[in-house]
Amino acid sequence: MIQIIPSISIFNGKCVKVPPGDFEHPIEYGDSPLDVAQTFADHGIERVHLIDLDGARKGKVVNYEILQMITAYTDLHIDFAGGIQTDSDIRTAFECGAKFVTSASVAATERAFFASWLISYGRERIVLAADTKDGKIITGGWQRNTGIDLMELIDYYYERGIKYVKCTDVNLDGQLQGPAFPLYKQILAKYPDIQLLASGGVRSVADIEKLAEIGVYGVMFGKAYYEGLINLKDLEKFMQMS
After folding, report:
1. Is 138:144 a contact under the CB 8 Å cutoff?
2. What tens digit of pLDDT does each residue of 83-96 get?
3. pLDDT digits over 165-198, tens only?
4. Residue 41 in contact with residue 6, Cβ under 8 Å?
5. What is the spatial distance between Cα 156 and Cα 108, in angstroms, rounded to a whole number?
6. How far, in Å, CA of 213 to CA of 75, rounded?
7. Ranges of each domain in the chain
8. 3-241 maps to which CATH number?
């Protein structure tokens, strides 16, 4: 059954939603990142995608103390992303309790380096972030269009044993208009062994059910939860079947 993976985006120490690439107009949500994480844990959520937006913007891990606090006070498995550029950054993330690390920029621009992480830390702990806009890879907090073809990047790491791929259609993120179903079908048809994490556009439990039907491994979402379109009780059936 599909894994339920809510996201917590941190900017200036607060839980926020940032429109794609627009750090000047963050939408703040009231609870602290730790309070949100504890709420997820209390409702049976096992895995959370924690996004260090400050780190993504600055190109280095910034909010490691929040990561450390969440892993100290909950049993959540944290998939940490944002600003991981060096061996020191990835070690910091794991030492502060991250179970998984997701990388976009390094994976796109320093392929041999990212591939070495698969060997050093294991394919069970490293997630490729293949975030895309109009078929091209977007990095740096979705501020930089690399011009790299999405499927070409996935293909490169597929040949090198990548297991987890997180894919966001940036055009749909935060729009609450539904996920990129055709894109996910295309990826799974070409790379059936990949554990695909779908992100962006999720607006309802029905969307999650449809993602499960097409074979998506996990679904990441934020805005639909924070704005009350999805409640945690409605997700309990997925946790019970996982």
Report:
1. yes
2. 999 999 999 999 99
3. 999 998 887 778 899 999 999 999 999 999 999 9
4. no
5. 10
6. 29
7. 3-241
8. 3.20.20.70
